[in-house]
Amino acid sequence: MNIGLEHYLVVSALLFSLGLLGVITRRNLLVMYMSLELMLNAANLALVSFSRFNNNLNGQILVFFIITVAAAEVAVGLALIVALYRKRQTAHVEDLTTMKL
Amino acid sequence: MGLPDILFYVFAFLTLLCGVLVIANPFSRNPVTSAMFLVLTIISMAGLFVLLHAFFLAAVQILVYAGAVMVLFLFVIMLLDLKEEERRRVKKFGLVAGLVSVGAIVTIFLKVLLASKPGADLPVPMLEGEPAALGKLLFTQYLLPFEVVSVLLLVAMVGVILLSKKDLK
Question: Which of A41, B14, B83, B119 could make a disulfide contact with A5, Cβ separation 3.0–4.6 Å?
Answer without folding.
Answer: B119
